[in-house]
Amino acid sequence: MRRETWDITHTWDITHPQRRPTPAQAMPALALAALGIVYGDIGTSPLYTLATVFDPANGLALDAFNIVGIVSLIFWSLMIVVSLKYVALILRANNHGEGGIMALLALAASSVASKPHLHRTLLIVGVMGAALFFGDSVITPAISVLSAVESLEVVEPGLKTYVSPLTLAAIVVLFYSSRKSAARVASAPYSVR
């Protein structure tokens, strides 16, 4: 029996059905992309933290002792959050092949179905968790773009007046293009379902 392998550098011609990758062949690339998105999102938070902590207005001296201490706090916070929250809890929540906060809510609600008061409390907590998720998904791109555009100020302080308009323009373009891209990706013939 010959085992199919998938080369990440190989390009597929998806216009010909016989040349499309199978779900098993596409899975490594999709997993790599998902991993990059998750760790890319998690990895931007320490940058904001460092910029805020060492802001001269906060009064923390920029010396070796403070740098090692703050970087250590950030590192261990990320390790604990990723290890405990994601690996030990979130990844184990599997509601008939679905995951996320709503799957976790469904699993928790089914375990307390005989207790209506606890069931109602879990529903409220689940809705709040979903609201936080949606809020985070809206604000994270805006904060990322704003911090990238604000770096222009460091290079040329005279560009400070252009930070807000450039940020707004970039966000409008990103959200407009992501709307079209998401629809194309979701309807792609090679997507794994």
Structure overview:
With 193 residues, this protein is mainly alpha-helical. The chain has 2 domains: 23-92; 116-186. Helices cover 68% and strands 0% of the residues. The chain has helices at 23-53, 64-89, 101-111, 116-155, 163-186. It is globular.
Which features does this protein show?
single chain; 193 residues; mainly alpha; 2 domains; 68% helix; 0% strand; disordered N terminus
What would a concise description of this structure say?
The protein is mostly helical.
Mean pLDDT: 76
Separation of the first and last Cα atoms: 25 Å
Q: What is the SS-derived class?
A: mainly alpha
Q: Count of DSSP helices?
A: 5
The residue fraction in helices comes out at 55-70%
Count of folded domains: 2
Order of helices and strands: HHHHH
Oligomer category: single chain
Radius of gyration, in Å, reads 22 Å
Shape assignment: globular
How does the SSE layout of this entry go?
Elements: H1 23-53, H2 64-89, H3 101-111, H4 116-155, H5 163-186
